[in-house]
Amino acid sequence: MQFSTRTTPPGRARADCALVPVLAGKELTAGGREIDAVHGGRLAKVIRSGDLPAKAGSTLLVQLDGHLPRALLVSMGEAREAAARAFTDAVRGALQAAGQLAADEALSLLHEAPVTGRDTEWKLRAQVLTGREIAYRFETLKTKRETRPVRPKRVVLPVSAGGSFRAAVAQATAIANGVDMARELGNLPANHCTPAYLADTARKMARELGLKAEVLDVRQMQALKMGALLSVARGSEQPPKLIVLRYQGAGAKQPPIALVGKGITFDTGGISLKPAAEMDEMKFDMCGAASVLGAMRAVAELKLKLNLVVVVPTTENMPGGRATKPGDIVASMSGQTVEILNTDAEGRLILCDALTYVQRFKPSTVIDVATLTGACVIALGHHRSGLFSPSDALATELLEAGNEIGDGCWRMPLDEEYQEQLKSPFADMANIGGRPAGSVTAACFLSRFAKGYDWAHLDIAGTAWKSGTNKGATGRPVPLLANFLLARARG
Ligand code: BES
Ligand code: MN
Ligand code: ZN
Questions:
Q1: Could you tell me the pLDDT band of residue 12, with boundaries at 50, 70 and 90?
Q2: 98 — pLDDT class (breaks 50, 70, 90)
Q3: What does the pLDDT look like over 246-291, one tens digit per residue?
């Protein structure tokens, strides 16, 4: 589904179908009235019939003629001014209904509807992101196409001249490209998406977008004394990798922002083996990695004026004759020792060495993204990601970036008191803190390695994928990360 802006007035536009917003169950917008006038008041008449339900996203098809053979009336909800959420629901309903028609090109006037606290640029971005979200299919590994081709193929967004409307569509398109990439990597099963595959994907993206790529192998990790990361890889036949991608969009002196993503391509739990039920979903345990790669794609496509480093520690977590055993003690790259009481708490072990490693880039800000704890799913469910940061300013920036783009997070505590749960009689710390506040103690563990920069941690265990019949990666939190980086690039 491709989106573009056009400055032709809606009354004169040609398209297979127009998406016409209806406010408070009865009112047309300026463009809607133009179309109505050209077609002899047909739209107003149908609205008066009362057949269009008021619920946001309800639709009613009206046959027209000439250059515009149909219009889809789209209810924006009962209020004259829609809430951001109702607007997105309306867009989803409209594009899904339009997808059932034999219409290749749609003309959407939905951004003419008022939305509380949002400008036209926001409404354009929301249409692109929602449209691309419903257009995505994972068909890479199907030999037969099961679903009909995606319709509409093109969506034209009429806008007035001036404004940053084209830029808004370009931004959302780049973010959607990043989201698609993250969903694709997340959905690929672990026999395809191995650490080596992630490394190849990163190298390919680097070539395409002019990034610097470096992939560290086991020997380089050994030389760096990454004992925590290596302890997770021990049980696997797949060699682990540490992927580094660098984008320079600002002066070399400007300190970079670093994104670190958990890249466990499959999490069996290791010797602390997980139960069999739903274990297939642990192929999604590299969604943190996928999301930071997706965010890098959006940034590089948009040529943002900032410097960005993406670091992905990636390995499988497998049981095996050489695998790490509960009680084993390893030395991390930072020098701190860790008693591994549960090999299933592996995410923090690969991240802690990556958090030490990023220090060499002297980043101003580091954000790590990880499907880290089941406890985070219990705390926040599937709507908001967990946000942990000792910095109020950084936490506020991330909260706002997420809320604005509909990819929300929620701040969780990091108080000193929780650190006590990580005490070990044998090493500097244990890798688990017991059942209470499991996502907080996981973040506390990471905080001991996140030194020398501003740091935030996003636990995306509940938001990175959907279970059940709609099983699949969501691409979150690419929109949050990209929106945060867009704001940073604006300065
Ligand atoms: N990848 C899992 C976290 C996870 C679990 C994400 C379920 C989504 C759904 C992580 O590696 C893990 O296994 N965490 C353990 C930690 C525990 C052993 C302290 C967990 O959450 O159970
Ligand atoms: Mn685990
Ligand atoms: Zn895991």
A1: very high
A2: very high
A3: 999 999 999 999 999 999 999 999 999 999 999 999 999 999 999 9
Which residue type, as a one-letter code, is found at position 344? D
**Total count of residues recorded for the chain:** 491
Let me know how many helices (H) and strands (E) the chain has, helices first.
Answer: 15, 21
Q: Ligand 1: does its nearest atom lie under 6 Å from the Cβ of 350?
A: no
267 Cα to the center of ligand 3, angstroms: 5
Q: Indicate whether 339 and 442 sit together in one domain.
A: yes
Residues 24 and 78: beta-carbon distance below 8 Å: yes
pTM (two decimals): 0.98
pLDDT of amino acid 357: 99
The answer on 244 and 148 residing in a single domain is: no
Residues 251 and 360 in one domain: yes
Distances (CA, A) of 483 to 174, 413, 462: 11, 24, 20
374 within ligand 1 shell (Cβ under 6 A): yes
Predicted pLDDT of residue 148: 79
| Mean pLDDT estimate for the chain | 98
Q: 374 C-alpha vs ligand 3 centroid, how far in Å?
A: 9
Residue 45 located in a structural domain: yes
Residue 372 CA to ligand 2 centre (angstroms): 8
Q: Looking at the structure, do residues 58 and 181 belong to the same domain, yes or no?
A: no
Q: d(Cα 421, Cα 93) in Å, to the nearest integer?
A: 48
Q: Could you list the residue range(s) of the whole structural domain that residue 283 is in?
A: 176-490
Whichever domain contains 263, its CATH number is: 3.40.630.10
CB of 345 shorter than 6 A to ligand 1: yes
Are 144 and 265 part of one and the same domain? no
